């Protein structure tokens, strides 16, 4: 093949490529054009292979022409690509245009769940009295849940609490009282010990309007020298006034808990009738809110505190019980059903 014929093919190829490029209308076709005219197996590359048939003095001249054509086609391709990309971007932006005349979506304000609200209020009250907040494991050992709280394996009081056992020695805690022992062991020999422990507990109860198999208990513990029952009553009176009003009063009734001695149930004046007597308080004028008592000497000794020197009191209340009294809720199941119609009543409360 001579130089003139090969140059004529190159000129024809360039004109054909430019004409073809003018008809390209999308980036996919543009990439196909690039492969056809500038790729490794393109016609331009095919002409480069035919340079071997030219005279030695003609090869550099044809190589220069070939490079000029390749560079010209690449420039044409680059320009076409920019035009197509801008067009596609403009089309995409037009399709994604936001209609600013549409009304905005109303945001729904959130709020604390009534149980969380009550826990925070109770924590604030006791933090103000010098208590610290602690947390413990919900999966507990038999040792801490029962034995260290004066409930050995053969103790009949274990029947008071129907327990979810995982193994013989592992269970879902039935109360937050194990944190009494864990806190005393951790802090020993420091005094005073003043701790509040909110947390979930689990019992094999039938769910109804006043019972749940899983609920929130709030445990309180104070240990120091010369702690008396009067200190317990004073603390609980301050708590009741802070949550239910300055006119609130409490009374203590004798009771039994294995880990406190003496033990007492604590009542407050009925929040529904103000003490006059109604259906809710069964005409007594009082409503039970928690259990309490002086920490049993055996519990103190097992936790490392000498009961001949130190004494203490403990109390435990259900957060759901407090929430029901505070907000007039009659069915505990409403606190767990996540019904927005119910929960929205507490927005901004």
CATH class of the largest domain: Alpha Beta
Number of separate domains: 2
Number of strands: 9
- Kindly state the mean pLDDT as a whole number? 86
Gyration radius (Cα, Å) is 41 Å
Arrangement of strands in the largest sheet: 1-4-5-9-8-7-6
The major pleated sheet works out as:
7 strands, mixed
Q: What's the CATH H-level homologous superfamily of the largest domain?
A: Bira Bifunctional Protein, Domain 2
Order of helices and strands: HHHHHEEHEHEEHEEEHEHH
Shape descriptor reads elongated
End-to-end separation in angstroms reads 95 Å
Low-confidence stretches: none
Helix content: 40-55%
Strand fraction equals 15-25%
- CATH architecture label of the largest domain: 2-Layer Sandwich
| SS field, number of helical segments | 11
Q: Class by helix and strand content?
A: alpha+beta
Look up the CATH topology of the largest domain: BirA Bifunctional Protein, domain 2
Catalytic activity: tRNA(Phe) + L-phenylalanine + ATP = L-phenylalanyl-tRNA(Phe) + AMP + diphosphate + H(+)
Subunit structure: Tetramer of two alpha and two beta subunits.
InterPro entries: aa-tRNA-synth_II, aa-tRNA-synth_II/BPL/LPL, Phe-tRNA-synth_IIc_asu, Phe-tRNA_ligase_II_N, Phe_tRNA_ligase_alpha1_bac, Phenylalanyl-tRNA_Synthase, tRNA-bd_arm
Enzyme class: ligase
């Amino acid at each position: 093949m001579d130089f003139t014929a090969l140059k004529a093919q190159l000129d024809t190829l360039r004109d054909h490529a430019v004409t073809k490029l003018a008809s390209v209308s999308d980036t996919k076709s543009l990439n196909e054009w690039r492969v056809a005219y500038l790729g490794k197996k393109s016609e331009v590359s095919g002409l480069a292979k035919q340079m071997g048939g030219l005279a030695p003095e003609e090869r550099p001249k044809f190589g220069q022409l070939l490079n000029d054509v390749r560079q010209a086609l690449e420039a044409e391709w680059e320009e076409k690509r920019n035009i197509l990309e801008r067009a596609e971007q403009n089309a995409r932006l037009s399709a994604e245009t936001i209609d600013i005349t549409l009304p905005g979506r109303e945001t729904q304000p959130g709020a604390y769940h009534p149980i969380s609200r009550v826990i925070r209020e109770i924590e604030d009250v006791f933090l103000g009295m010098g208590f610290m907040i602690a947390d413990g494991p919900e999966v507990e050992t038999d040792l801490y849940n029962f034995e260290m709280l004066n409930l050995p394996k053969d103790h009949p009081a274990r029947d008071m609490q129907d327990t979810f056992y995982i193994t013989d020695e592992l269970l879902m805690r039935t109360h937050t009282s194990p944190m009494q022992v864990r806190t005393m062991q951790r802090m020993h020999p420091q005094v005073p010990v003043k701790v509040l422990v909110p947390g979930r507990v689990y019992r094999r109860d039938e769910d109804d309007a006043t019972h749940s198999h899983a609920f929130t208990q709030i445990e309180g513990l104070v240990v120091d020298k010369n702690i008396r029952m009067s200190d317990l009553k004073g603390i609980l009176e301050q708590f009741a006034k802070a949550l239910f009003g300055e006119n609130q009063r409490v009374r203590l009734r004798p009771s039994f808990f294995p880990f406190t001695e003496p033990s007492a149930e604590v009542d407050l004046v009925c929040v529904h009738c103000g003490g006059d007597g109604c259906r809710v308080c069964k005409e007594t004028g009082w409503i039970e809110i928690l259990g309490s008592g002086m920490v049993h000497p055996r519990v103190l000794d097992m936790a490392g505190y000498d009961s001949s020197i130190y004494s203490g009191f403990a109390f435990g209340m259900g957060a759901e019980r407090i929430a029901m009294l505070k907000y007039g809720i009659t069915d505990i199941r409403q606190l767990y059903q996540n019904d927005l119609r119910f929960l929205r009543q507490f927005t901004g409360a």
